[in-house]
Design goal:
The protein has 133 residues and is of the alpha+beta class. The chain has five helices and six strands. The chain has helices spanning 15-19, 49-54, 69-75, 77-86, 105-119; strands spanning 4-6, 23-32, 35-43, 57-62, 88-89, 101-102. The strands form two sheets. Strands 1-3-2-4 form a four-stranded mixed sheet. Strands 5-6 form a two-stranded antiparallel ribbon. Helix 4 (77-86) packs antiparallel against helix 5.
Length: 133
């Protein structure tokens, strides 16, 4: 059974939006029962952690040149699956007004570290010849 649901929508950012503060965020919506939805979103202003936690969404800002969502998800799949396994939905109460989910924070830290490592990896330029097009 697939516990990660990957949303393939890729929000585009124009150069003008990038210059005016728009950014992309790599998001994990913790659905509970070991499941999560992974998606990319574009936001005009930085997301607020408390607001996102009310929706059981964790997010990590990615660079303006981030363009290989599928490659990144594949590279960080193991920590994402571990994070999903640790998540449990809960009802907000007096002791916890903001978070709709509990999760292993160290698992989320590993996801963020893996995303950062993936973004900073050395890229091998394509060496196509004129005959290859």
């Amino acid at each position: 059974m697939e516990n990660l649901r990957i949303d393939s929508a890729r929000p585009a950012l124009t150069p003008e939006q990038t210059l005016t503060g728009w950014r992309r965020e790599f998001c994990v919506e913790l659905l509970g029962e070991g499941k999560a939805r992974i998606f990319l979103r574009a936001v005009e202003s930085p997301s607020m952690k408390a607001d996102a936690l009310r929706q059981a969404i964790l997010f990590h800002r990615v660079g303006a040149t981030f363009d290989d969502f599928d490659g990144c998800v594949a590279a960080v799949r193991e920590p994402l699956e571990q994070l999903a396994r640790t998540a449990a939905r809960q009802k907000p109460g007096a002791d916890n007004l903001f978070a709709a989910v509990t999760y292993d924070r160290s698992a989320w830290d590993r996801v963020m570290l893996a995303i950062e490592h993936w973004q900073r990896r050395p890229r091998v330029p394509s060496h196509r010849t004129a005959a290859e097009g």
